[in-house]
Specification:
Layout: H1 28-33, H2 38-50, H3 58-64, H4 69-81, E1 85-87, E2 93-95
Antiparallel strand pairs: 1-2
Length: about 100
């Protein structure tokens, strides 16, 4: 039976060496304060303009636009801040009459 010698294993310096650098992890709190995508804001604004009597809840808006509830809340916050929408006492969002 023949024996095969294995090469010595030790530190190597070749093209597979990757320099270490710290990981960047976005905090979960950053997602609550992030500015929503302007295209999504305009999309929601368009729906309210096309249907003046539209008065959905936040959950209904999130389902309608297939968005996470948190993202939808950021969009609604922008539209509330602009005075484009208001929130009724029943928690529904409605177009402000101008």
């Amino acid at each position: 039976m023949a024996t095969h010698a294995r090469p010595a294993v030790g530190p190597r310096s070749d093209s597979l060496d990757i320099a270490r650098k710290p990981l960047k992890i976005q905090s979960l709190d950053d997602t609550r304060t992030a500015t929503p995508d302007p295209h999504l804001v305009e999309r929601v604004r368009g729906e309210f303009n096309e249907m003046p009597g539209f008065s959905p809840t936040l959950e209904q808006l999130a389902r309608l636009f297939s968005l996470p509830k948190e993202e939808c809340a950021r969009i609604v916050t922008v539209l509330l801040g602009e005075g484009f929408l208001y929130q009724s006492s029943g928690g529904r969002y409605q177009l402000c009459h101008r």
